[in-house]
Amino acid sequence: MDISVPTFPVRHSSLSLDIEGNKTEIIISSYEDHFLIIVTQIGSMGTILHARKDEGVSIHPTFNVSVTFGKRDEPMLVACARQLIEQISASGYSKGLVLSLGLKDHSVGTLKRIVSAVIEKLPVVT
Amino acid sequence: MVPNDLKEVISNGVETSTQSINQLTMEEQTSQDDGGVQITCFSEVSNEVTLHFQIIRLQKQIYAWIGCNSAKFGYLYAAAPTRPSNTVSVTSLIGGASDNTGSGVARRLVLKTGLNIILACDIPKNSPMLEADAEKRLVQKLISLGYTKPKM
Questions:
Q1: For chain A, how big is the Rg over CA atoms in Å?
Q2: Full-model pTM
Q3: Tens of pLDDT along B122-142?
Q4: Where exactly are the structural domains of chain B?
Q5: Which segments of the protein form a coiled coil according to its record (chain A) (predicted)?
Q6: Which ipTM value was assigned to this complex?
Q7: Are the C-beta atoms of residues B115 and B59 closer than 8 Å to each other?
Q8: CB A38 to CB B52 under 8 A?
């Protein structure tokens, strides 16, 4: 007897890696209108950022990135979110991004590794 | 064949079948990362509306998403018990207003479970029955997964 079960509408993918000595969990979920990316080294979501492409007709898209919860004085976190939304937009998606960064260290090296790990994993959920 | 050997073979067989049946009855999907992050996804139908639930358990926090017939993200809220009086604080992070459904759900989730919660909720406004049903199922699931903190 073949019973077909509808698949869950939200796809997700997770990975665990070591970044500069800190164990890092990355979870990417793809909703209809947003991507949710959780990056944590501290066991909680930490700072939550929201990034969107602006409505507009110009050739070059502009993005709005803001911290909605948590550290508002760490520009590297905003930069990380901006890089990711640009990558998402360049890949052809018009979805927004909700990014959570719960990090022990906010160095450039850490954030670069996070961005590259996420970009590598993104095609899996889309 | 000696009767004792036969009994042993039969009881081993029964044990194996029972294990297989237990595995077949799991309908939801729970995936576990080596790092201890658990993701549980399930869907339920309530009055012709399909509710989708996604629970991501981190060490010190729980993220939950409730979808209503679609995979839209909805509005985002953060809620947690606040010391010293154990009242619950809620704030809307993305797109919420005080009359949106999610903030009440987030608040009551924390009240019932004692957890630190981030909730994304797409249940439409003015659907109290749907809201109550979704909340009930989510709380039940959190309890059955063993995520809730014991009441003081």
A1: 15
A2: 0.84
A3: 999 888 999 999 999 999 999
A4: 29-145
A5: none
A6: 0.91
A7: no
A8: no
